[in-house]
Every structure is written in structure tokens, then in C-alpha cells.
């Protein structure tokens, strides 16, 4: 009798859980769709509001009136605004972001070429931020008000206050020009550019796949300095937030109870407090990563890093609106994807959210 009554109860519980998951998934998808529509709307109207004539960017300032009009019709600018927006959405969902005036290549191909460089730089910068920032924040929280805490605060202050371009220039002057510890600007030395075949777009991975270890270390030597500059920003943000989360957790009742029971301080910090702070901390790390993906323009410019930030800067200076809007759209999509992934992982990791 007990087994018979337990089976429907278990089935009902499983059904209720599936309904909750389905409801949560539908809400997430609805949010993504609305956000994507808003992103498309914003990028479309940016192109119409900015005082740059896309037709002149194509035909030039000295084009004849008939040439100008023909180009205007070809670009679809003679159609009503709502129709232009519909055409724009259709092109975006087919992967057509237009043609770059500056490079004469499809914007999609340009972004495929430059985005791996930014991804490589932001990933290593975030990894540096996590490996240094999390332990530094924990150390500051455990030793609140002591010299360890003061060091963490100084690191955070430097990371937030000192301009990135100044740090980059000083780093180049010291570690490249004076000491010669690292390679200079650029992504890889000229001698290796045609030797390493592009597969993933990430030079270090491509060099490793081909067994070109000299090229691998050359690429790493070019990467480490700009990654450290970006990593300092990430360390400042992550250490500050880790400190805040850990101070909050160390004041909770379960920590006091664990200490009363005789649990070691190491276990209290790493097994209990950090575990409960992990979910919001993961969100902070994801936000830091997204910030480095879209906010590395100055770093890429200083180090002549051929990434998305430098590509967008050159496009904007040359009134290449297809490239600017295409890059902006890609960054927005990455933001949405990382945010969605972070939310899903948070739900899986934290039973309270589920």
C-alpha cells in the first residue's frame, strides 16, 4: 500500500518540478527575445541618428547626384523606416551585417577575424583577475582592518583610479623597452605570421595544434603584458566584491555555529563561507569578463592588438557604420549569452534560487 501511494506522489513531484523548470525556461527565452529585439532596435536607430551619411561613406563626397541616388536605392534608404527595420532584422538573422567600407570585406568575416584576439585577451585577463582577486578578497575579509586588508584596498584603488592607457604605456616602457622581458606591440612576431595556419583564430591554440612551440611562446610573450593590464582592472573589481561577499558570509549564524562546534578556521572559510558566496561571485566574474570583452579598446590601441575594440575604433573614425553597428551587435549578443549562461549556472548551483 505504501509503495502504491508513494509512486503517484513521486510522479506528481517530478511533474511539478518539470513544470517549474519549463516555466523558468519560457521566462528566460522571453527575456532573451525581448532583449534581442531591443538591441536590434537600438543599433538600427543609432545608424539613423548619427549625423553620418552612409551613402557618402560608400560613394564619396564628390559623387554625382545620380550615383548618389542609385547607391541610396541600392542600400534601401528610399524605403519607409519600418520597412528598412524589417529588412535589417532579416539580414541580421541570415548573418548579413553588410560590407565594411574600410576593408571592403563582409563585416561578418572581419568580426570572425578580429574577435578571437579580443576573446583571447579578455579570457587571460579574467583568469588573472580570478587567480589573484579571489584569494586577495578572501584574505582581506578574513583580516578585516589589518595590513592585508589595506593592501587589497590599495590594489583596488589603483585598478579603479589609474587610467588604463597610462598603465599600458608605463608597462611597455618598463618591461619591453627597458628590461626586454616581453615582446612589444602586436599579436605575434612577423616571422611567425605566415607559418602558423589559422584554425581556431586563437594563435596560441593554433600554434600548439601544429607543434610550433616557438611561435606559441612568441604569441604568449605578446599577450601577457596587455592581459596583465586588463587583469589589473579585473583584480580590482573581483577582489573588492569577494571581500564584500565574504565579510557578509562570515557574519552569518551558520559560521558562528560552525566555529562553536570546533570546525577549523580553514574549513569555515573555504568550505562554508566561500561556498555560499560562490554563486554571486560567479556572477561578478562573468560581469568582469563581459566588461573586458567590450571595454578593451584603449588596451588594444596601445598594444596594437588586432582585436574587436581596435577594429571598432578604426571603423568609427572612418565613418564605417556597417562595421560599427555589426561589432556593437555582436558584443550585445555575447552579453546576452553570457548573462543567460550565468543565470542558468546560478540556478543549478544554488538550491535557494531553484
From TrEMBL:
PROSITE patterns: ABC_TM1. Keywords: Cell membrane, Membrane, Transmembrane, Transmembrane helix, Transport. It is a multi-pass membrane protein. Gene3D superfamilies: MetI-like. Residues 115-346 form the ABC transmembrane type-1 domain. GO terms for cellular component: plasma membrane. SUPFAM superfamilies: MetI-like. It is found in: Cell membrane. Pfam families: BPD_transp_1, BPD_transp_1_N. GO terms for molecular function: dipeptide transmembrane transporter activity. Its main location: membrane. The chain crosses the membrane at residues 29-50, 121-142, 154-177, 219-238, 281-303, 323-345. Belongs to the binding-protein-dependent transport system permease family. This is Peptide ABC transporter permease. It comes from Bosea thiooxidans.
Amino acid at each position: 500500500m505504501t509503495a502504491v501511494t508513494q509512486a503517484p506522489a513521486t510522479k506528481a513531484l517530478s511533474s511539478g518540478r518539470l513544470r517549474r523548470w519549463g516555466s523558468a525556461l519560457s521566462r528566460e527565452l522571453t527575456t532573451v527575445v525581448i532583449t534581442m529585439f531591443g538591441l536590434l532596435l537600438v543599433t538600427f536607430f543609432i545608424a539613423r541618428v548619427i549625423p553620418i551619411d552612409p551613402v557618402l561613406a560608400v560613394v564619396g563626397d564628390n559623387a554625382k547626384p545620380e550615383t548618389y541616388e542609385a547607391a541610396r536605392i541600392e542600400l534601401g534608404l528610399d524605403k519607409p523606416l519600418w520597412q528598412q527595420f524589417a529588412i535589417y532584422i532579416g539580414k541580421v538573422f541570415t548573418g548579413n551585417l553588410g560590407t565594411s567600407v574600410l576593408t571592403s570585406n563582409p563585416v561578418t568575416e572581419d568580426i570572425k577575424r578580429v574577435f578571437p584576439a579580443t576573446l583571447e585577451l579578455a579570457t587571460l585577463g579574467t583568469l588573472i583577475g580570478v587567480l589573484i582577486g579571489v584569494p586577495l578578497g578572501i584574505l582581506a575579509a578574513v583580516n578585516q582592518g589589518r595590513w592585508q586588508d589595506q593592501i587589497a584596498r590599495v590594489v583596488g584603488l589603483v585598478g579603479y583610479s589609474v587610467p588604463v592607457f597610462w598603465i599600458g604605456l608605463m608597462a611597455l616602457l618598463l618591461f619591453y623597452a627597458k628590461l626586454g622581458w616581453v615582446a612589444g606591440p602586436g599579436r605575434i612576431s612577423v616571422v611567425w605570421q605566415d607559418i602558423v595556419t589559422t584554425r581556431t583564430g586563437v594563435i596560441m591554440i593554433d600554434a600548439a595544434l601544429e607543434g610550433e612551440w616557438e611561435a606559441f611562446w612568441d604569441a604568449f610573450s605578446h599577450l601577457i603584458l596587455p592581459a596583465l593590464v586588463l587583469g589589473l582592472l579585473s583584480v580590482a573589481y573581483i577582489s573588492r566584491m569577494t571581500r564584500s561577499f565574504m565579510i557578509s558570509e562570515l557574519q552569518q549564524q551558520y559560521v558562528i555555529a560552525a566555529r562553536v562546534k570546533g570546525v577549523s578556521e580553514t574549513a569555515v572559510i573555504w568550505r562554508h563561507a566561500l561556498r555560499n558566496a560562490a554563486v554571486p561571485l560567479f556572477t561578478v566574474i562573468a560581469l568582469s569578463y563581459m566588461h573586458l570583452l567590450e571595454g578593451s579598446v584603449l588596451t588594444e590601441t596601445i598594444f596594437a592588438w588586432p582585436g574587436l575594440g581596435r577594429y571598432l575604433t578604426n571603423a568609427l573614425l572612418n565613418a564605417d557604420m556597417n562595421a560599427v553597428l555589426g561589432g556593437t551587435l555582436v558584443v550585445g549578443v555575447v552579453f546576452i549569452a553570457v548573462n543567460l549562461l550565468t543565470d542558468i549556472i546560478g540556478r543549478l548551483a544554488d538550491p535557494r534560487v531553484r
